[in-house]
Amino acid sequence: MKPRHMHLTEDCRAVSDILQRVGDKWTVLVVGKLGEGPMRFNELRTTVGGISQKMLTTTLRGLERDGFVTRTVYPTIPPRVDYELTELGFELLEPVNALGEWARMNTARVKAARARFDAAADAAR
């Protein structure tokens, strides 16, 4: 039997590489917040609940490296640093917002499915 879709290994690796960046929860939340406009580090940390300073730093560096975010340092005392979505970042915002909306609309269905699964697993023990 032949596979229905032939995928080149390089294509799969490329897609996997990018999805690793854009598919993690912190990236989704940070991109969503930056979609509202430029923000400073501590402002982002406050609005993205539960993220540690180290994880926010790591997420922002990765987003900057991949071209989704720009980091602008202003020569003030203390230095002011703003993060902002690039054109590519704004393009990413559309599917990120759609995924977030889908998650909000389907939370109850997912919780119900989990409860059914857990109940069946408990019954099988």
Describe this entry's structure for a reader.
With 125 residues, this protein is mainly α. 66% of the residues lie in helices and 11% in strands. The chain has one domain: Arc Repressor Mutant, subunit A (Orthogonal Bundle). The mean pLDDT is 89. It has a 3-stranded antiparallel beta sheet with strand order 1-3-2.
Q: Can you describe this structure in just a few lines?
A:
The chain is mostly helical and 125 residues long.
What key attributes describe this structure?
3 strands; mainly alpha; Arc Repressor Mutant, subunit A; globular
Topology of this protein?
Blueprint: H1 9-22, H2 25-34, E1 39-40, H3 41-47, H4 53-65, E2 69-74, E3 80-85, H5 87-124
Antiparallel strand pairs: 1-3, 2-3
Strand order of the largest sheet: 1-3-2
Second-tier CATH architecture: Orthogonal Bundle
Count of DSSP strands: 3
| Number of discrete domains | 1
Number of helices: 5
Structural class call reads mainly alpha
Largest sheet: 3 strands, antiparallel
Helix % is 55-70%
For the termini, the CA-CA separation is 38 Å
Quaternary: single chain
Q: pLDDT below 50 for ≥5 consecutive residues: which ranges?
A: none
Shape: globular
Residue fraction in strands: 5-15%
- What CATH calls the topology is Arc Repressor Mutant, subunit A
- String of helices and strands: HHEHHEEH
> What does the radius of gyration come to?
19 Å
Text of the CATH class: Mainly Alpha
- The overall pLDDT, averaged over residues, is 89
The CATH homologous superfamily corresponds to Winged helix-like DNA-binding domain superfamily/Winged helix DNA-binding domain
